[in-house]
Description:
The structure is a single chain. By secondary structure, this protein is mostly helical. The protein has helices spanning 2-13, 17-23, 25-45, 71-104, 110-118, 125-135, 141-146, 157-168, 170-181, 185-193, 198-209, 211-227, 230-235, 243-252, 256-280; strands spanning 48-51, 54-60. The chain has a single domain (71-287), classed as Orthogonal Bundle (MetI-like fold), CATH 1.10.3720.10. It is built from 15 helices and 2 strands.
Amino acid sequence: MQKNSKLLTKLEDLPSPYKLERLSTPYKVWLYILAVIPMFIMLILMFVDTEGISFDDMGFTLANFSILAEESVLVAFYNSFKFSFLTTFICLVFGYIIAYSLYKSRLKHKGGILLLLILPMWTNILLRIEALSYLMQPHNIITNLLGIEGLDLLGTDVAIIIGLVFTYLPFVILPIYTALEKIDPSLEEAALDLGMTETKKFWKVIFPLSAKGMVTGSIMVFLPCFSGFAVPKVLGAGNILLIGNIIEQNFSNMNYNIGSVLAVVVLVLILGSILLINKIDKEGETLL
Length: 288
């Protein structure tokens, strides 16, 4: 009875859901200012004709959507899909191998190793890309030390894929490893007791149960690859155009109407992917 009374006292001391919800108020305010309000502004700019930020002669028009039929935009969409699919596939292969190897290892400090894998994400992405672009030039610090001629990869498809994989690989490793860790060990034991080999156990038990993490990781890689512009701009050296680069160029040139049309199209794809994640992983287990 005494233990129960102490437990009730501790539960009463816990902050109420209302108090916890109040802590999220600053985040909600910034979310509306930096995300929701700009999104509604872009939705308006899609259907109007303006000169820069001047709304004096603003008028309704659907002519802005003609940009979607231009050859340069279609090529940019194609390049975005191509690089996003290739990067996602490569990240899935290497990410699963790394996550599964870590899951099966008997290391004591797996959390520390995971921390080392995601540690580069804590640094500025532009600094990492700029450093990588320097290493892709024929003459860099490594080639100078070794006295050899380096590869001139800057401005090629290979450079962009390497940069995207280097940047977003941790986004696949973490959800896959989380999904693997949530697999009940008794299921593996039962599979072996039923006469399955290690290979069959993997394909029949482990791989299907980790598919949720693979889907989450794929979307977390595909979306930033598709909509980003920093990696192709730096490593592509202006030779390869992605849809993110066209959006960035239009907004930089104050062509907000065209930029809003393209940005909203990408935004619809992103929201659709988020809905897919919520449908597959309703409790967000693989994001923990």
